[in-house]
Amino acid sequence: MSYSEKVLDHYENPRNVGSFAKDEEGVATGMVGAPACGDVMKLQIKVGRDGVIEDARFKTYGCGSAIASSSLVTEWVKGKTIDQALEIKNTQIAEELALPPVKIHCSILAEDAIKAAVADYKKKHEL
Amino acid sequence: MLKFPIYLDYSATTPVDPRVAAKMIPWLTEHFGNPASRSHAYGWDAEKAVEEAREQVAALVNADPKEIIWTSGATESDNLAIKGAAQFYKGKGKHIITVKTEHKAVLDTVRELERQGFEATYLDVREDGLIDLEAFKAAIRPDTILVSVMFVNNEIGVIQPIAEIGEICREKGIVFHVDAAQATGKVDIDLATLKVDLMSFSAHKMYGPKGIGALYVRRKPRVRLEAQMHGGGHERGLRSGTLPTHQIVGMGEAFRIAREEMAEENTRIRGLRDKLLKGLSDIDATYVNGDLEHRVPHNLNISFAYVEGESLIMAVKEVAVSSGSACTSASLEPSYVLRALGRNDELAHSSIRFTIGRFTTEEEIDYTVALLHQKIGKLRELSPLWEMVQEGVDLDTVQWAAH
């Protein structure tokens, strides 16, 4: 399996790795995937009072493409409102990282992680 | 001086030993004759070289040279043995027994025979990777004609109880095939005492060239096969095709070297493997796959929990290792061999097979141990599963959103 330079860059130097405290103000968590499938992504967003995502963190168990996809979305969601974040599509992630067809599911998982994190935020804030 | 990437994938293939390569070259250039040419010295020379190599291959496994048939490799040998025996003996019955952890060259061949109307039993293995002899006996039917069990597993290196299986098969009059591609040069094989009827060999797993192998076909008691390759009637009609003299000479030389050096070499390699095992054992949550006692000296297969296998292989790109067999590494499926041991998908996903060989040095092992410590630490920092386990979450109780 050969990886694109962008995948390798995110994999070697993952952005925004880590965790926020779950009860911190404005923090929401999305966890998607399953160990049995070989990928689990945890994406956390920290949303300001104005509804803009101020910061994001991730941890991913998965292949290089899964790690790169989640690293990339932590960069992309920052500065977006939660509704704008929902507009990020897996095809954009796959295109940016030049994922081969067998790795498209990684980008789908990253999109799902955003949806799950936003859903958690909406649930917590009864939006 | 370390040369990167460090090669620790000797069960995928080995470099050709320089002594083997040197021996092969004249048979490509000067002595290019067709061993089947009976009318001139070019042919006679080549035939003599082929027969000398046949003796060298036979000598390693204590067989008669007349029992060795040249093929293109272990896959072809497996096909010829299994299809050839099943088709020859189909009048006696149609049931075949093999094992779930066999190489695909055996499993897919048996599947093909099922499509042709044969019936097959795929035996489970125990948690240690070995077959349960009682379960094997129970699987034998009155119409069982063929049993195929590998000597040494390619992924986890465990050695199956071939002598015991052979006794049972002989007593019942069942043809017994053994894929020994991973066994020659690693374990002692004595076909004068083992009750094995057919045995597959490969050259490139033991410092010979790719593209050449052999099949042992027992003469006493005689085992019959239907040929799968028809043509000039080479190899007593069992495998037609012009013999590749240079490849055969290479395989012979590789087997000669193995016979002379394997005892000493395996002691050295076992020392390196044990050093690697010791060095990796102090990483948290690691699991050795397969029995350590009944195992070839050069194999170590370990799962590192909470780290995904493909990213692990990517992280340790300074070492050339595999997450299973090279034949399946292109697929995203976890190893079917580890699944058969009862390893869950997650541990099956996070396994690495290290296979050490003739040219591995202690320095390379030291480097590998240090690299693994560093990279597994890094990947676990990235792993949400590791984080949950550190927080005391039992992962088995988590409701995962399947996708």
TrEMBL record, chain A:
InterPro entries from the UniProt entry: ISCU, NIF_FeS_clus_asmbl_NifU_N
A molecular function GO annotation: iron ion binding
GO CC terms in record: cytoplasm
Leader peptide range in chain numbering: none
NIF system FeS cluster assembly NifU N-terminal domain mapped to chain residues: 3-125
SUPFAM superfamilies: SufE/NifU
BP GO terms, sorted: iron-sulfur cluster assembly
Family in the record: Belongs to the NifU family.
Primary role: A scaffold on which IscS assembles Fe-S clusters. It is likely that Fe-S cluster coordination is flexible as the role of this complex is to build and then hand off Fe-S clusters.
PANTHER family: IRON-SULFUR CLUSTER ASSEMBLY ENZYME NIFU HOMOLOG
Listed name of the protein: Iron-sulfur cluster assembly scaffold protein IscU
Organism annotation: Pseudothauera rhizosphaerae
Lineage: Bacteria, Pseudomonadati, Pseudomonadota, Betaproteobacteria, Rhodocyclales
Protein encoded by which gene: iscU
TrEMBL record, chain B:
Annotated compartments: Cytoplasm
Catalytic activity: (sulfur carrier)-H + L-cysteine = (sulfur carrier)-SH + L-alanine
Broad class of enzyme this protein falls into: transferase
EC number: 2.8.1.7
UniProt GO cellular component terms: L-cysteine desulfurase complex
Record pathway: Cofactor biosynthesis; iron-sulfur cluster biosynthesis
Domain of life where this protein originates: Bacteria
Cofactor: pyridoxal 5'-phosphate
A Pfam family of this chain: Aminotran_5
Binding annotation for [2Fe-2S] cluster: C327
Main location group: cytoplasm
GO BP: [2Fe-2S] cluster assembly
Residue intervals passing through the bilayer: none
Annotated ranges, domain Aminotransferase class V: 6-367
Iron among keywords: yes
Entry GO MF terms: 2 iron, 2 sulfur cluster binding; cysteine desulfurase activity; metal ion binding; pyridoxal phosphate binding
Family: Belongs to the class-V pyridoxal-phosphate-dependent aminotransferase family. NifS/IscS subfamily.
Alphabetized HAMAP family for the sequence: Cys_desulf_IscS
Alphabetized NCBIfam families for the sequence: IscS, PRK14012.1
Assembly and binders: Homodimer. Forms a heterotetramer with IscU, interacts with other sulfur acceptors.
Protein's UniProt name: Cysteine desulfurase IscS
Organism: Pseudothauera rhizosphaerae
Upper classification of the organism: Bacteria, Pseudomonadati, Pseudomonadota, Betaproteobacteria, Rhodocyclales
